[in-house]
Amino acid sequence: MNTTVTQTKILLPRRRPDLLSRERLLELLDDLLDYRLTLVAAPAGYGKTSLLVDLAHQVDYPVCWFALDPLDQDLQRFLAYFIASIQQHFPEFGKNSQSVLQGVSQANLDIGRLLTTIVNDAYENISEHFVVVLDDYHLVDDSEGVNYFVSRFGQEMDENVHLVIASRTLLSLPDLPLLVGRSQVKGLSFEELAFRPQEIKTLLHQNYHQTISDAKAQELASETEGWITGLLLSAETMWQGMEDRLRVTRVSGVDLYDYLAQQVLDQQSAPVREFLLHTSLLEEFNEKFCEAVLGEAPVGESWAGLMAALMYHNLFVQPVGERGMWLRYHHLFRDFLQAQLVKHEPEEEKRILRRLVDVYAERGEWERAYAVCQRLGEQEVSTRFIKRVGFDLGKAGRLSTLASWIDNLPANVLPDDPELLSLRGGAAVMLGEVEKGVSLLDKAIRLFRDTENIIGLARSLVWRATAHRFLGKYQDSLVDSEAALGMSRTEKDFLLSQAEALRAKGMALLSLGQAIEATYPLEQSIQSYHLLEDEKNAALVHLDLGFVYMQIGRYGSALKHYEQALALWRKINNIAHQANLYNNLGVLTHLKGDLLQARTFLLKARECAAKSAYTRIEAFALSSLGDVLCDLNLYSESRERYQQAKEIARQTEEQYLLIYIELVEAKLSRKKGEFTNACQNLIKVERFIKESGSSYERGLWQLESGRISLAQGEYEEAARAFNAAVEDFRLGGQRVEMARTGLYLAYTKNTLGEQDAARMHLAEVFQNGASLESLYPLVSAGRDMKEFLEDIQTFPEVEKPASRLLEEVIHFEEGLPQLRRQFCPPASSEAAVPPALEIQAFGRGWVKVKGEPIVKPEWVNQ
User: Fold this and answer.
1) Which of 63, 222, 439, 773 has the most CB within a 10 Å radius?
2) How many angstroms from the chain centroid is the CA of residue 823?
3) What is the pLDDT of residues 211-266, one digit of tens each?
4) What are the two backbone dihedrals, phi and then psi, of residue 848, each rounded to the nearest 5 degrees?
């Protein structure tokens, strides 16, 4: 997800001249920061923002500012700005949070995971009290995702965080009643913010050098109902003759518009008046932006000069940005100007809006461009814009946004437009509506072929190839990806489709069990992505290739690709992908027999998973740690890791991992001689394995079934299970598992007296083992059959590899005690000295041992 953060939204606005007395401010802000949440709810123009700006200058704490706009209803955009607003004051905060946010798309956005990451990020990197201000919250109050996040953040944030929300409307946060019930909420309403007569007198005297009587101040307070904008929305001339016009000016509706037209707009020169009207359509503008949208300045004028005129005449503009180089109108004055433009120059308004769509699209500000399209209300402009940015929107993970924009078009547009059909179909596939996506892509492909649009056709074929793979139609996936590769063009967009087609072909081949063949298109895909300087996608394919090479036993090649992916993800600080990769590196080094290094990688995977709240990968890392501990005969510790992984897998509905853990639990029960329990574990997952259709999962099930039968002396049944498992692994190209299972099969055949069959299977086992670059995967099986390994050294066909494997088994078992001590060092025999404890439970809690602070233990977040 890529969101360009506009700094002006997260910078504290400039402080206006004091409007309220210091005593009144203290009255309103008294004990405000004793609460987790403070709500400031009042209609437009009651000084909510000014009050909070004053708050920022009164308190000693850092104030993190976030000025909301309607585009922030998009949760990803909201979170990007939310993180950036805090990072403005605390640079160490946000690295983990931004990494997690950038690593997800709308299709897999997990609010709970992101919330956990942000809360932990703040806990680890911010120790002092600070305030987060969300200004103009009413503009996003319709967003269910934003409301849920803010509500939960209010619950989960640490005591040093104070959330302040300013809104024109009453809030509908889900957990607000609970916070109120706990006395954790303070509120200010418009009655408390309304200006009192004495404050109106002070305001007129201070800002406009006008003196009025108490009676007139009371009358003005009644007329304006204390509405501060009604008092301030004027130049100095508004106050001239105020005493004679109190009953005429209600500063609302038609009266206000008439005043602005007669006393402000009509008083300006023609160039300034035109500039006011035309720039009212721009949310913010500077000299270059005016040139991009409006073209050349009028003859004899310059955009910089006209901007200076607005500032000189104090025409309701506010400098924004760190250096004040951009201008923004007061929203009520902007609305007035836009109404005047529509009334007097409707065609000019449409021309500017059309150009504004193009400029925002060029700048990558897609949501702003779409908002302008909606205001313009011209179907052709909206359609052209969506087709222009749709592919980039999809690449950025904004799939839900893309789908909703297309769905908002008139119903008669989609069926005949292949580009829209393709974009909507691709979004549907990635959002989990795979069958719907295929149907849309089928139509798009037919239309693209009719119009000979090669780039569109290639892109649609790649998306359909992915969809077919998701549906298990691997051969169809291969056909589509090869069809896309059969088209030869040189455009950059087409080269990107080629890179994606190569990846799709590689994954289709892998799914078909052709692991070695899959490496070639995947290697080409990486090269293409590097040429396109697309590092993110290149890293994903490196991970794919590492997995393929690990399956076929080429560990050196797998490691090379994992390291390249890790370097890229470190560069872009994607911690979630790093967690995934460290887990794979842990599995790889385990297969190579380096158990200590495997543990280091897997603990790093858990650390990254915890930082990014990537619970799915944490479960895999725990399971992988269980595998390592199991090899060390540390069965109790191993079972504990599996149970932890199982709990997470249940929460995340990770079906493969649940199956795998049931199988390893069967293995642990078998090793304890608890065959009934072991068989029950197999029965639990048998139905799920049949439904999944995975030959790999079926192979693992058959392997453990065979080992249970073997342990009970049921050799014929064991041989049948092992033989079925070998064929399943052969089908999927899993050489590691095929070699390991083949050793059990040879042992069983030899026990049955079928020496010729045993020798045949052994020859295949060691042939596969020779290509694995490590015999360690056979060591665990060999430990169950050392006498058999001693006997088969007399078989001429396998004498040397059998002797080598036996040496590996003996060497491992000799080093096992030392390895176990390194994993579980014995407790010191020295008498322990009770530590001196210091505990602070109030405010931000801490614990010190002998004067040294200790960190929050891992289990606190589990």
Assistant:
1) 63
2) 35
3) 778 887 777 666 555 656 555 543 333 444 444 443 444 433 435 566 667 667 88
4) -125, 140
